[in-house]
Design a protein that fits this description.
The complex is a heterodimer. By secondary structure, chain A is an all-alpha fold. The model of chain A is unreliable at about 560-565 (pLDDT under 50). Chain A is about 70% helix and about 0% strand. In chain A, α3 packs parallel to α5, α8 (about 230-250) packs antiparallel against α12 and α8 packs across α14. Chain A has helices at about 5, 10-40, 50-85, 90-115, 140-170, 175-205, 215-225, 230-250, 255-270, 285-300, 300-320, 340-360, 365-370, 375-405, 410-435, 460-490, 520-545, 565-579. Chain A has 18 helices and no strands. In chain B, a hairpin with a 5-residue loop joins β6 (about 105-110) and β7. Chain B is α+β, with helices and mostly antiparallel strands. Chain B has two domains: about 1-35; about 40-165, Cupredoxins -  blue copper proteins (Immunoglobulin-like, Sandwich), CATH 2.60.40.420. The chains are: A mainly alpha, B alpha+beta. At the A-B interface, α3, α7, α10, α11 and α17 of A face α1, β7 and β9 of B.
Chain lengths: ~575, ~170
């Protein structure tokens, strides 16, 4: 069998483009990360404190929205086409969703970059959470909306392929990879409802001057309606990598196909009704709703704990196939020289640590201690910054040959890259966690205050500063290795060996053992919707009855009003005079 | 569907862990008595915050109910904490804070304590804190509120009981 790039050239092209966009975002966001790590620790300041927030906005948007989502739509497209063994129904349509995503991403990014140029009125120094009444140029929100619509259409593309596949494969179980993509996308449709409502109904009309005021607690709640499940949108493709690719690289096969399906169904059901756990310390939301978010979040541990079992069991199976023995001795038989394997395995290890720091975040009353401290970015640099980012980068060493048709440049270089990322992140994120316990705030250009001395029980603050800066430098070095390798492999500079095709072995316990009801996506979506309604209708009703749908917060003083908005006002006054 | 015995054991252990985590939260609320910031503070017109009875005057004043010894009203605005720069409270006192914002979202965190909350325009944050260690505590804005956010700080002094001169007294 030929490799994917030869079997489905038009699909491989879109996958390559999506990965390309993803890596451009990774480059931009990573560069911003280096500037930040050195700036807030005080070692090197090449920008003003006020510009720091432009850098931080770009870091957040480029990495957590653009890098992750561009990568995963590319990966998902491959997963659907390859597992259904049919090209997309319409290449035009596939190109359309990619184009929408790219155009939207470019609009938002350019708006953020405008913040670096004082002379233009276009900027978006609102961070990636864009809490109102902080205000960005409307282009920023419009770009985000367009990017989202692109992802929605991508989902339509994959559902269409699946629907048509079913016509000729009546009674067959949906292939595992497609099943994972579809459940993830259903979760995504539900999750993005919140942010789409916030942007399209409230924020965009407000920045355009169509409505005068906004309700900050409402838009914030709608943001987190999306803001937590979005992390599962990054994580579920990683789980797919860990379930499908990692066991294969280890020389074995997935332990249980039905269990993998159950895990994805659990994510579909439980991901969305958890967002309020980001708002434990918000006024205007009753304690009972917060407790409900706590218990939903804790139950979300279940699919992750089940994954830990299945993945480790699959790895052990692989290691024993390769001749590994003993209770822990089999670990030595794993293919640690393969960068794709080692990177993903280390990412999984870091994710386990992240799970425990996440439990502190999610623990309702413990949250007082860490909320908005450096602990929180410490946590998510382990989750999205390592479990997701490192898995995506590492899997590229396996994935790239599938979509370019050529082998990668060098295994050793790849190995060095994933190891430097791991060590850099160990330094940076452990120090961030510990500094957070000492009360050092996140999201600030300069965490030093007159008369305030931070004392962490877990280390000296200066030592922590050094670790954060050093970690940031090592991570940047890892990115340099990654991009060097990528360019050499992608553009036929360093390698011209043809990729050899390989296939993904079936699970030990196959899909025929899965209960039929798992295929009933309508049922699971229905349950997910009911849970969301139960968690969100009452708090949102309370917020709206308190401040109204559109609130009463105007454009705060000190916000630069865009010139063209002023023009709109003058136009309106003229109109009034004429009438 | 066949489920391996170890898988079942793991599943059971996972559920125990989850229920255990939830139990710690319940214990924190019911046993230790940590209550969450909630909707008790009510809403406020963000354009006229000083019309609200709690914000006619900022700073420390007598408590209205029996739940606290004093009340402290703080207006968090770009880039100051009005009423908490500095704020003096006696040792071993229970203070109920009322905090609001007339402009954007802010954070209110007292360093070295677990007193930490969000301040959202249109909402009044009500938070009751017990202070039993005399000393100087920094108050930080912990949510990005615009260029200048990194300078937004206040000061809280917990005065030893024997030096406390009462409201408006010399301490």
């Amino acid at each position: 069998m030929a490799v994917f790039a030869e079997r489905y050239p038009s699909d491989a092209k879109v996958v390559r483009m999506a990965l390309g966009s993803s890596f451009v975002a990774l480059f931009l966001g990573g560069l911003m990360g280096l500037i930040q790590a050195l700036h807030r620790t005080g070692y090197l300041r090449i920008i003003d404190d006020s510009t720091y927030y432009t850098v931080l906005t770009l870091h957040g948007v480029a990495l957590v929205l653009l890098f992750t989502i561009f990568f995963l739509v590319g990966f998902f497209h491959w997963a659907v086409v390859d597992s259904l063994d049919r090209t997309s129904e319409s290449t035009r349509f596939t190109q359309l969703w990619y184009a929408l995503m790219s155009l939207g991403a470019a609009m938002s990014s350019v708006t953020i970059l405008g913040g670096f140029v004082g002379e233009v009125d276009v900027s978006a120094d609102v961070l990636y959470t864009f809490y109102t009444p902080l205000e960005a140029h409307p282009l920023f929100y419009a770009g985000l909306a367009m990017f989202l619509v692109g992802t929605w259409l991508a989902g339509v593309d994959w559902f269409r392929s699946w629907y048509n596949w079913k016509q000729s494969h009546g009674g067959e179980r949906t292939p595992l990879r497609t099943f994972m993509v579809l459940t993830t996308m259903l979760m995504w449709y539900l999750a993005t409802f919140g942010v789409a409502a916030a942007v399209l109904v409230f924020i965009l009309p407000w920045t355009l001057g169509l409505v005068d005021t906004v309700n900050p607690l409402l838009t914030r709640t709608l943001f987190w309606f999306f803001g937590h499940p979005v992390v599962y949108f990054w994580l579920m493709p990683v789980y797919m990598l860990w379930y499908v690719i990692l066991p294969k690289l280890a020389g074995g096969r997935l332990f249980s196909d039905p269990l993998a399906r159950i895990v994805f169904v659990l994510f579909l059901i439980l991901s969305v009704p958890t967002g309020i756990h980001h708002q434990y310390l918000d006024p205007g939301i009753a304690e009972g709703f917060k407790f409900l978010a706590t218990s939903n979040t804790m139950f979300l541990l279940l699919p992750s704990l089940l994954t830990a079992f299945t993945v480790v069991a699959s790895l052990e199976h692989g290691a024993r196939q390769r001749g590994g023995t003993g209770y822990v001795g089999w670990l030595r038989a794993l293919p640690w020289r393969k960068p794709a394997f080692t990177g993903m395995a280390l990412a999984g290890l870091m994710f386990a640590a992240a799970g425990f720091s996440g439990m502190v975040n999610a623990g309702l009353n413990l949250n007082y201690l860490v909320h908005n401290t450096l602990w929180v970015p410490g946590h998510f640099h382990l989750t999205v910054g390592t479990a997701v980012a490192l898995s995506f980068m590492a899997s590229t060493y396996w994935f790239l040959p599938k979509i370019t048709g050529r082998e990668i440049f060098s295994r050793r270089l790849g190995l060095a890259q994933v190891l430097t990322w791991f060590f850099g992140m160990v330094l940076m994120s452990n120090a961030m966690h510990r500094a957070g316990v000492g009360g050092v705030p996140r999201r600030t250009a300069d965490p030093t205050y007159e008369g305030v001395e931070f004392t962490s029980v877990l280390g000296n603050i200066n030592e922590l500063r050094l670790q954060i800066a050093l970690g940031g430098v090592i991570l940047s070095l890892s990115l340099v290795l990654f991009f060097t390798h990528l360019l050499l492999s992608w553009f036929d500079i360093g390698t011209s060996r043809q990729a050899t095709a390989d296939s993904i072995p079936p699970a030990l316990s196959g899909p025929e053992n899965a209960p039929k009801v798992l295929e009933n996506l309508q049922l699971w979506s229905g349950i997910a919707i009911v849970l969301v309604l139960l968690t969100y209708v009452l708090p949102i009703a309370a917020i709206v009855s308190g401040n109204g749908w559109f609130g009463s917060v105007e454009h705060p003083a000190g916000m630069v009003e865009p010139i063209w908005l002023l023009a709109l006002d003058i136009g309106r006054q003229h109109l009034a005079v004429m009438v | 569907m066949e489920i391996h015995r170890y898988e079942k054991l793991w599943f059971g252990a996972a559920l125990v862990l989850i229920v255990g985590f939830i139990a710690t939260v319940v214990y924190g609320a019911a046993g230790v008595g940590i209550s969450m910031v909630d909707d008790d503070g009510g809403t406020i017109d963000p354009n006229n915050v000083t019309d609200h009875p709690k914000f006619e005057q900022t700073g420390l004043h007598e408590a209205e109910g029996d739940d606290a010894d004093y009340e402290a009203s703080v207006i968090a605005r770009r880039f100051i904490f009005q009423g908490a720069d500095p704020l003096e409270v006696p040792e071993n006192s229970v203070i109920t804070f009322y905090i609001t914002s007339p402009d954007v979202v802010h954070g209110f965190k007292i360093v070295d304590t677990n007193a930490n909350t969000m301040v959202i325009p249109g909402q009044v944050t009500e938070m009751t804190v017990e202070f039993d260690e005399p000393g100087e505590y920094g108050i930080l804005c912990s949510e990005f509120c615009g260029a200048g956010h990194e300078n937004m700080a206040g000061q809280l002094t917990v005065v030893p009981e024997e030096e406390w001169g009462g409201l408006g007294g010399d301490s």
